[in-house]
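for ur thesis appendix - BTB domain-containing protein. copy paste whatever u need, i formatted it the way the template wanted (i think)
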Amino acid sequence: MGFFLHLNHSNGRDEERHGWISHLKNDSFRVRCDVTVWTAVRTSGISGGSSPCRHQTCTSTCAARLLESQVGTDVTFQVGEESFAAHRAVLAARSPVFMAQLFGQMKETATSHVRIDDMEPRPRVFRAMLHFVYTDSLPNMDGDAPAVGQHLLVAADKYGMERLKLICEDRLCDYVNIGTVATTLLEVAEQYGFRGLKEACFKFLMSPGNLKAIKDSDEFQGLTTRCPSLLSELLNHVAP
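the 3d part is after this line
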């Protein structure tokens, strides 16, 4: 983008005295402008201003209160011995599976009570998933994070919640250790195709000490029997 500026040469002596006439070449000159682009806007000190992060926190907090208050709920899920009231529209907006269940041709569209029997450990995982649906964040899972996290990852896969899958997989990568790599995480990663989690397990086992610690265990032997392709893939990773 540019514009033309007409220069009058009638008063050349005055122009030369000001010095800029020497910069003319073929009756034109070039002006350089440095532009600074701010990637974030500071709102501190601005009356009424608030950052996008604060808006997001407020939205999550309000959604959590809506879930807790149960105001306007129109569907109840029976998970084990516990029931959870929720809003069809909110669930459908976050999950294509819930959309089909609650607004499609499936039988759940005709009832306000849905029973879920294939989620383990049932209430804890469903509660965590429901929390994420409303707040876009995971609840505090204390010391049960690895166990609940892997079941939550499976639930996220079942309900087509891609963002929740990514978050769970990323969290579980931090819990890869001697006690979990062969007993649960590697098998879950293989069974459901969670490539990032599998790579984290392989990276952990590339340490000779870690591999030696589990290679003779019943859990690892059982895993290689159930998933023989894992053994050859692991050998390809650890081979020099």
